[in-house]
Design a protein that fits this description.
By secondary structure, this protein is mainly beta. It has one domain (about 5-80, about 90-130): Sandwich (Immunoglobulin-like). The chain contains 2 helices and 9 strands, in the order H-H-E-E-E-E-E-E-E-E-E. It has helices at about 5-10, 20-25, and strands at about 35-40, 45-50, 60-65, 70-75, 95-100, 105-115, 120-125, 145, 150. A 4-stranded antiparallel beta sheet has the order 1-2-7-6, with no helix packed on it.
Length: about 160
């Protein structure tokens, strides 16, 4: 396994100490492509995960978010009901799955819908007002702050 030293980045980046663990998690992601999925970007703060879940009903799917991890799981209750069926070729997957996606801070699931065998999960980054950029006023040495507004001292004449 390749190890990357992030210490030079931490000299100028504050609060990104989880970056290295997130990259390690992405590196260890489970192989396999079932079910296939797309991750789409719509605008600056909107995302969509689309998964091909043909054969799964709405009750067979489970979506949950815990600690910034989106987990999508599917399990069919009637997987072994058709034991008498003989297949010459079985190309339609009928197995359980679990996919996990690491979400950035402030990314929320806003909608999930199942249509035409595709599960669409809508995500939006909603940065709280307190975290948005704001202009900081710089006061001089002869100014004092009164009730949140800057007032200049009048120079003695």
């Amino acid at each position: 396994m390749t190890t990357i030293d992030f210490s030079p980045l931490f000299r100028s980046m504050i609060g990104f100490d989880r970056l290295s663990s997130a990259l390690e998690t992405a590196y260890r992601t489970e192989p396999g492509g079932y079910p296939p999925y797309n991750v789409e970007v719509h605008g600056e703060n909107d995302y969509r995960v689309t998964m091909a879940v043909a054969g799964f009903a709405q009750d067979d799917l489970d979506i949950e978010v815990t600690d910034n991890v989106l987990r999508v799981a599917g399990a069919r209750a009637d997987q072994d009901k058709e034991t008498e069926t003989k297949y010459l070729y079985r190309g339609i997957a009928n197995r359980s799955f679990e996919r996990k996606f690491q979400l950035a801070d402030y990314v929320q699931v806003v909608d999930a819908r199942l249509e035409n065998g595709l599960l669409h999960i809508e995500l939006r980054r909603e940065i709280p007002e307190a975290m948005r950029p704001r202009k900081i006023e710089i006061r001089g040495h002869d100014a004092k702050l009164i009730e949140g507004r800057q007032e200049q001292k009048k120079a003695a004449a």
